[in-house]
Amino acid sequence: MEYILTTKQLSKYFYQKKALEKVDINIEKGKIYGILGPNGGGKSTLLKLAAGLLKPSGGEITIDNKNPGVYTKSIVSYLPETNYFYKWMRIKDALNFFNDLYVDFDMENAGKSIEFMKLEEKEKITSLSKGMLGRLKLSLALSRNAKLYLLDEPLNGIDPVSREKIITSILDVFNKKSTIIICSHLIYYIEKLLDYIFFLSEGQVILEGETENLRNERGISIDKLYQEVFQ
Amino acid sequence: MITLLKYEIYRRWKWLVIRYAALIGLGIVFYNRATFSPMQYNIAAASMGKFFLVSLIVFAIIIVEGINMLKEDLFESSGYLTFTLPKSGRSILFAKNFLLFVQFFLWALVSIQFGTMFLKLLPLEEVSRYMAEIDLPVYPAILFVLTAFFNFVLMVQFSLTLTRTLLYRNKYSGIISVGIFFLLTYLIEKFYYGPFLYQVQRVYSEIGSGLEVNMLSAGYTSVFMNIVLSIIFFTATAYLLENKINV
User: Fold this and answer.
1) Which of A40, A116, A128, B79 would suit a FRET pair with A140, their CA atoms being 20 to 30 Å apart?
2) Do B3 and B38 have their domain in common?
3) Where are the alpha helices (DSSP H) in A28-178?
């Protein structure tokens, strides 16, 4: 079995506060994974560690058998929860920026995606609503031909109509050569996308399994299962 | 690296144009004022003084911007680090400091050009006598200012990066990095290295006293020290940016 991401006893502490503790996960190539859990569970921390934004306090994380660094950043497309664009940028500038700095960025695809998301290239990023910003971030992240996509709360602040657009975009970009990891609270919307799920709470994996198996074993949807687990 | 540099320039090109346009524009205004009343040396000297004041302000802005270029990446939500760019810490730091070098070079070029023009308006014998009294070795002094400038900026950048690496999202990071900077300055002084302020004071005192000190060897020694320190701070900062920092 080929893994794109593996962690061994991965821990992350911020001062005395535990964010992740001895997490062991293996992410196979060519699947869509969901990391689900309440706020402060460690989901974003895990993605940030994979993106190379945070450094582990203990244990190890490898992507394509390499520790996070310049190489892994070239094959990982990370969509952060926050607005990370420069204030001076227009959408067109952001497209050019990505095109110039990521070798795997597909400008043509990005143009189509921007159009699909009903965004105007001349618009200033500071004037975008939260939903529009979310759509822009996703368009850019998914327009890279990356081996691994890390999507941190891609549906946050997005209206229901746009959520469907986002789900469609994620499905469009997915192919058997790439892997997607999605962190989200909005289980109902992403449930149908996921092949495998990790439930993360207080920095630890408390439940994991194939989505289909979990549904069949428990006889309930993942959304309901989430509510049961974290009640 | 070129692309990173391109975006460093692109995001602040308006300010760069305004800054140098103001320096050149005010230089022309003061020079015209000085040439308007020939042989009135006090007017020429006053105009020259005003130009150097403007030049000094631009110099201070360049230094502050050089520090802020990295500070923004470290402490704000937008920057090369948050974009998870597949670029090494060395490339990111080099792009920022290369722009700083270009700015410094342009500033020096404009200031020296106007300085020479102003000097020609002053009584030549007196200027020559004054220059002879100072007896300042020109090349070590220029090299010293250049290397001390970079040493100072790199030392501040290192202090900021180290603080950000050690303390994640701490509201006192700014103050603590100032503390680290002064601690480094103190330690370097202790080992008889020439930190920026110390060297400026030294050059100033030697100019001021008019002593016939042969600064050649002392000047080149401090230049050498500054280069070594700059390499150390650059390498250490790039390493922290790439391998240790939590963004």
Assistant:
1) A40
2) yes
3) 43-51, 70-75, 91-101, 107-116, 130-142, 160-173
